[in-house]
Design a protein that fits this description.
By secondary structure, the chain is mainly alpha-helical. It contains 4 helices and no strands. The chain has a single domain, classed as Cytochrome c-like domain (Cytochrome Bc1 Complex, Chain D, domain 2).
Length: 101
Amino acid sequence: MAAPFFAAPHAAAASDTGSADAVKRGRRIFHERCAGCHNQKPGDSMPFGPPNLYTSFRGASAITSHQAETIIRNGEGTMPAFGPVLSQSDIRLVIAYLRSR
């Protein structure tokens, strides 16, 4: 009954968010659930509408993965909460996809 038995799967799951498969799954979720509002292309800097999420993790106004997870789960401003719609794993996959861009 060693504790590492329980720790290993969790650690593996956390590191999997950087894998090519995780990014691919995150891309699918993003395009199904997020692109309807956040449909700007990388490099698009339109000054109105929802933020361009392709640049959320870069530059002077970059957010952390934890901040992004909180915003997606709880909503912010006019963005509704997606916590009831997406699992924590799904949210992390979307973040993995956006961080890969």
